[in-house]
Design a protein that fits this description.
elongated
């Protein structure tokens, strides 16, 4: 179940990030294609996964 939870978290986060970019970027004068939005979201997804993994390892060592 932990894997399912992690996968759901990542997928939902990715969808929210891309949707946010689509809505917010134009407000700041940034006009890019949906494909670019998806790629930018993918970069943040990878960074988020690495961050979560590293924090989990740190807390496992502390506890």
């Amino acid at each position: 179940m932990s894997l399912a939870e992690a996968a759901a978290n990542v997928l939902i986060g990715y969808a929210i990030a891309v949707a946010t970019q689509v809505m917010v970027f134009p407000v700041f004068g940034i006009h890019i294609t949906l494909a670019d939005d998806l790629r930018i979201g993918l970069v943040f997804l990878v960074v988020s996964l690495i961050r979560s993994y590293m924090l989990r390892r740190v807390f496992e060592r502390l506890l």
